[in-house]
Amino acid sequence: MDGEIYMDWSKAKNILIIAFIITNLFLAYVLIDSKNIDNPIIDDEFITDVRNLLLEKDIKIDSTIPTEIPSLPLLTIEYETYKPVDLASKFLGQYTTENIEGKEYYRNGTETLIINNENEIIYTNDDNVKKIESLEKKDLIKIAEDFIKDKGFASNDYKLSDFRESNGTYYIEYNKVIQDTFFEKSYMKFNIDASGIKKFERYWVSSAELGDNNMTLMSAPRALLKLITMKDAYGKTITDISACYYLDLQKHMSIGDPKKMKSGNATLAWRIQFSDGTKIFLEDN
Fold this sequence. Notes:
Blueprint: H1 2-33, H2 44-55, E1 60-61, E2 71-79, H3 84-92, E3 96-100, E4 103-108, E5 111-116, E6 120-125, H4 137-150, E7 158-166, E8 169-178, E9 181-193, E10 196-203, E11 205-216, H5 220-224, E12 237-246, E13 263-274, E14 279-283
Parallel strand pairs: 1-12, 9-12
Antiparallel strand pairs: 2-11, 2-13, 3-4, 4-5, 5-6, 6-10, 7-8, 8-9, 9-10, 12-13, 13-14
């Protein structure tokens, strides 16, 4: 008899769990995909409900949830391209070249430079001699920004978007800013430790043309409900929520390496950044 009761309770628990999941997914579907709601009411109660629903998936929000409805001009962008030989001289001074599997490597001692598709810079330095005494945030940011200026890149078109430390390495990321709005994906990334800059990556927009018509994005609370169905967000903490221009490179996989794309039309998206440095972009679709 006890065994039957246990089995019945076990089945009941499974049914309740499945029903709970279906309820959450249904709620997310209704709130996200109800296109007939052009101006949803964003009040404190609704925002609290969103926070609680995300907590049930162990998604914490350590950030303000924006309540404005973003509306920004359409945007056509073009990525920056480089002449590898010119960059090699700028980054390395004297250098040697080595071709490995069709890819050109430029080297000077412990330093290596690779230019992918003429538009992505990857610089590495394997020197492990300690050079930096202070690893304070302000000092590391100065090292990164001095490096950017020294390489001849503009210093007024980017904004710090991430600063983290893991096992003695500091990860600093800057993103392109257009009309005071982040553009994704366009970035400069640094890995820095006590021996200096270990890695630098740059994938950058050179020009942006604003269109005549505006795009309007769904509200942030409604967009956040999409995370309920995204397992990549489970167990994470959101540290920043902001509207951004977004060009989804994965949509251009038909051309092989999507970073071969030199230009495109950006959409609007909510940029959800987590404490581990990862990001999810929530588009209005």
